[in-house]
Amino acid sequence: MQSDGFFLTIAQIAVTLAGFSGLVVAMRGNAPDTWHPRDIWSLCWMLGTSFGALFLALLPLLLAILHLSDDSIWVISNLIMCLFMAGLSVVLTVAGQRLTARGHPPRVRGFPAAAVVLLLLSAGLSGVTAISFPQWQIGFFALGLVISLFVSALALVVFLVLLARAAGTRK
To answer: How many domains, in total, are found in the chain?
Structure first.
């Protein structure tokens, strides 16, 4: 497989994002049971998309080790990406709607919608290319990984902005 290096780099970036998220959480200083529900929700976005990118980036390499054909590797990888991205979007959207119903509306407008649109776009592209456009499978799979990392970084920024706001109001 010619793109091994790219996928390993994506996996390394994903681990770095997840690790940095963990570092931010550890440095926060207060117990997770005192967090605002939206903080936990933002953390779920960060970890879900970064660990998703990690495992999805390693998936084609694992399938190659199993000696599957290149066509099978990319069909399976794109279908799993489609299911993961769509599933994560649905789960976190439902969780966000429940938080809003309980009186915890989104604190950063536009983030939930932007994240969902990006992940669903990725899901749709990887699902369609898995079935209909074999020549674009690697490209759209790679795009989906980059989208996942972008959403993770965006969630991290949102989380840091919320932490800064909370620190500013405590002074």
So the answer is: 1
Within 10 A of 127 (CB to CB), how many other CB atoms are there?
Answer: 18
In a domain, 166, yes or no: yes
For the stretch 12-67, pLDDT in tens is 888 888 887 777 776 666 666 677 787 788 888 888 999 999 999 999 999 999 99
| Tokens standing for residue 16 | 């770095």
- Quick one: which of 14, 34, 15, 36 has its CA closest to 151? 14
Q: What is the pLDDT of residues 81-128, one digit of tens each?
A: 999 999 999 999 999 999 999 998 887 788 888 999 999 999 999 999
The reported pTM is 0.85
- For 45, the domain range is 4-22+35-170
Which amino acid, one-letter code, is at 116?
V
Contact between 73 and 64 (Cβ < 8 Å): yes
Q: Is residue 85 part of a domain?
A: yes
Look at residue 29 and tell me if it is in a domain.
no
Q: Residue 28 falls within a domain, yes or no?
A: no
